[in-house]
Design goal:
single chain, alpha+beta, Immunoglobulin-like, four-stranded antiparallel β-sheet, three-stranded antiparallel β-sheet, 9 helices, 9 strands, 38% helix, 22% strand
Length: 259
Amino acid sequence: MSISAPLRHALVRSASGLCVALALAGCATWQAPPQVDEAPLRERAVSAISNGVRVSATVLGSEDSKRMFGADVTRNGVQPLWVEVQNGTSRGLWLLRSGTDPDYFSPHEVAWSMHTMLGGTTNTRMDDYFSELGFKNPIPPGATRSGILFTNPDHVTKLVNIDLFGSKTLIPFSLFLRVPGGTEDPRLAQLAASSAGAAVTDYKDLTSLRAAIERLPCCATDAGGTAQADPLNAVGIGQFSDIGAALVRAQLSARCARV
């Protein structure tokens, strides 16, 4: 089938216009921030110290993301987590990323989600920039290292497990972090309040503790305490933060086993 000259010229102009449009779309407007200031993150960080190591962490919100990455990566289902490790030991340590989130994102995955068609060198600069901000192992003896872990989002309180390991060494941390823009879960607040106001009995031996557990009600009831429901036998022994961390670690272990 032959094509007339005017139609052929029209098709060429349309194709050229499409190429120009694609090229313009690929000319990304993303620019790396001129500098990265971790001070605002450090100011609201939650910290813990164990075995000569200090760990601090902060959840980044949308504004933090724009300031640090030049774009809001939280819109893509990513929750950046700033982590700082001060290694006061005499051995090198490594941060186990899968211990924090077994489904964590690599810096290149997050950068790729922001790539534009025909972005070319801009996409490459974005890859390099995100990789530079990512947390890097190892943490040498006596050194302080900070960086970003790209995790899946939590919308209320983020319970972060940070596992550091070295030669014959494992130093675990569990931190409760506020999620910017999140609201407090009323169930957690109610549980914490009831635990704080409850009478505490200190059992000195396991026999007394077992006897006290055996005296607990065997089954759940309704709000009025009248109708008896199914057996509910779950006892957690320890601080609220320790129990919560153990439950999260058990959940993470189950997720890793299914992968």
